[in-house]
């Protein structure tokens, strides 16, 4: 047995998922299984949901086992399929070097990709000059064009409007605002479904020391209207900077309109609304009488 810790619930996983020494024997066994060189050095990376760390020139992602309460197999299948799709489309992403599972104390699904030295894009944009920002936004727009296209792969989650009706995060906004959102959802179901990354945040794009930026962490890939991409980009990656949003947006459709539609659908839409309310509107999302103030904010900030 390579993994000695006990995982019976989400709290157990939260206590161990950043513990590299706990995963190192398991990871050495995975590397041997994949025919990769023995591990010499490890280092922490930005924490997420799963156990992610650097091992020499590779990034190892070990998914939470089902005993944690998370559907790890589904996330693994989604991310593996999305990485392979990105590679086939020529979209810059770290090369996949290994994928599968290892039966140990628990069944651990894993992915191994190349490690790309560089900076997380959100931090990089804070110090970039205008020319660098324009180049980055142009690259991202060009990457999204082939990515946000129809996809027949049955792995990816779909019907985000239907899924969002059951999403417990929306309980964080007022009943009146949620009723307003549900009134608006039916018109979104008529929009074409394309493949979306869904989590293009400040941490999930890397600007390498050399070459073009790369996209990582495809675990939230889904089939949804293309506007679903916009909230993480505008609110997390761009940190609400309207200049960056204008550099990116090249569609004739008003950005604020598309951004509002994406917000209504997004898995973390309620969290973004909570942030907008606290950071810009000075109210609690529980005080919203409708989503009108949020929509007005978007129209004013992204004219």
Features:
10 strands, 5-stranded antiparallel β-sheet, alpha+beta, 303 residues
The shape is globular
Number of helices: 12
The strands making up the biggest β-sheet line up spatially as: 1-2-3-5-4
Structural class: alpha+beta
| Topology, number of strands | 10
Low-confidence runs of at least 5 consecutive residues = none
Euclidean distance between termini CA atoms: 58 Å
Structural topology:
Blueprint: H1 10-16, H2 20-34, E1 42-44, E2 51-55, E3 58-62, H3 72-88, E4 96-103, E5 107-114, E6 118-120, H4 121-127, H5 130-147, H6 160-165, H7 175-189, E7 194-196, E8 205-208, E9 214-215, E10 222-224, H8 230-237, H9 242-248, H10 255-265, H11 269-281, H12 292-301
Antiparallel strand pairs: 1-2, 2-3, 3-5, 4-5, 6-8, 7-10, 8-9
Helix pairs in contact: 5-9, 10-11, 10-12
Walk me through this protein's architecture.
- With 303 residues, the protein is α+β, with helices and mostly antiparallel strands.
- It has 12 helices and 10 strands.
- It has a 5-stranded antiparallel β-sheet with strand order 1-2-3-5-4, sandwiched between helices. Strands 6-8-9 form a 3-stranded antiparallel β-sheet.
- Helix 5 packs across helix 9, helix 10 (255-265) packs across helix 11 (269-281) and helix 10 (255-265) packs antiparallel against helix 12 (292-301).
- The longest helix is centred in the middle third of the chain and has 18 residues, at 130-147.
- It is globular, with a radius of gyration of 20 Å.
- The mean pLDDT is 95.
């Amino acid at each position: 047995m390579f993994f000695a810790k006990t995982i019976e619930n989400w709290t157990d996983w939260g206590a161990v998922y950043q513990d590299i020494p706990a995963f190192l024997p398991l990871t050495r066994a995975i590397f041997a299984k994949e025919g990769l060189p023995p591990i010499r050095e490890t280092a922490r990376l930005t924490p997420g949901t799963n156990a992610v760390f650097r091992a020499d020139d590779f990034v190892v992602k070990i998914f939470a086992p089902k005993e944690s309460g998370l559907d790890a197999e589904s996330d693994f299948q989604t991310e593996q399929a999305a990485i392979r799709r990105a590679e086939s489309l020529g979209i810059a992403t770290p090369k996949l070097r290994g994928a599968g599972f290892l039966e140990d104390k628990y069944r651990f699904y894993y992915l191994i990709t190349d490690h790309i030295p560089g900076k997380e894009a959100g931090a990089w944009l804070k110090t970039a000059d205008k020319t660098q920002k324009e180049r980055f936004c142009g690259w991202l727009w060009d990457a999204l064009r082939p990515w946000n296209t129809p996809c027949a792969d049955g792995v990816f989650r779909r019907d985000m409007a239907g899924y969002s009706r059951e999403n417990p995060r929306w309980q964080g906004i007022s009943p009146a605002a949620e009723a307003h959102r549900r009134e608006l959802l039916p018109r979104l179901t008529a929009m074409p479904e394309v493949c979306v990354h869904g989590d293009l945040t400040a941490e999930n794009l890397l600007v390498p020391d050399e070459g073009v930026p790369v996209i990582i962490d495809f675990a939230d890939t889904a089939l949804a209207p293309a506007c679903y991409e916009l909230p993480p980009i505008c609110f997390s990656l761009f940190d609400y900077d309207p200049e960056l949003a204008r550099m990116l947006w090249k569609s004739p459709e008003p950005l604020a309109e598309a951004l509002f539609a994406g917000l209504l659908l997004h898995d973390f839409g309620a969290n973004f609304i909570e942030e907008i309310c606290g950071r810009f509107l000075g109210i609690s999302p529980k005080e919203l009488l409708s989503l009108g103030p949020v929509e007005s904010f978007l129209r004013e900030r992204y004219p």
